[in-house]
Amino acid sequence: xxxxxxxxxxxxxxxxxxxxxxxxxIGLSLAEGFVLAGANVVVASRKADACxxxxxxxxxxxxxxxxxxxxxxxxxxxxxxxxxxxxxxGGVDVLVNNAANALAQPLGEMTVEAWAKSNDVNVRGPVFxxxxxxxHLKNSDHAAVLNMISVxxxxxxxDLSIYAAGKAALMSxxxxxxxxxxxDGIRVNAIxxxxxxxxxxxxxxxxxxxxxxxxxxxxxxxxxxxxxGAALLLCSDAGSYITGTMIIVDGGGTxx
Length: 256
Hints:
Elements: H1 3-8, E1 16-20, H2 25-36, E2 40-45, H3 48-60, E3 65-69, H4 77-89, E4 94-97, H5 112-138, E5 144-148, H6 161-181, E6 187-193, H7 199-202, H8 206-214, H9 228-235, E7 246-249
Parallel strand pairs: 1-2, 1-4, 2-3, 4-5, 5-6, 6-7
């Protein structure tokens, strides 16, 4: 490998990345990483003001970015996200399915409405957004899909079963998508974060946060920025021979 090839590994100059749930937490950190790597970034979330604020922040980092307000569980609205991205930047190279619904109801007390609300965002949204972006991903020479799942997919989840099962389903779809789209030159991978210091985490009771922290070898919460390296690996040419797999970023908390 020469210097030119090495310098190109994580360079995403000119590529267009969609990040759902991209206005705060992990999504915003990933968006920052992609912008700093040279990509055009489209952030999506439910609130228009949050989208514009995040996009302005990303432009302040020196990149090109827009915000598109859309609910990840609204399948019809996902067309607006893809069409708006293509209208602004001419295509889609990378899709990051990061938006999530952390709704939790214990087994035995689940409602049909809660189950549907959770799965609309955590499973249906990513699957159908990927399908809607597929024609544009096929036209890219550097196409990648990154699904953000959770280490919750691997453990016991008596009170978080809706969320954990949805993330396990998205992990399964990651492998299926990788097999289905490999002939089109599209790589599909996932990241499974452990306990990360986000608003979603802070909405838990402190004793629950403490328990999750104790369950890691590092005995601390991760930061959203600590997901950026793995995301860049999986979405750039540095990961050109990686597809259908998952990187666990959890401070050493998940039994292997």
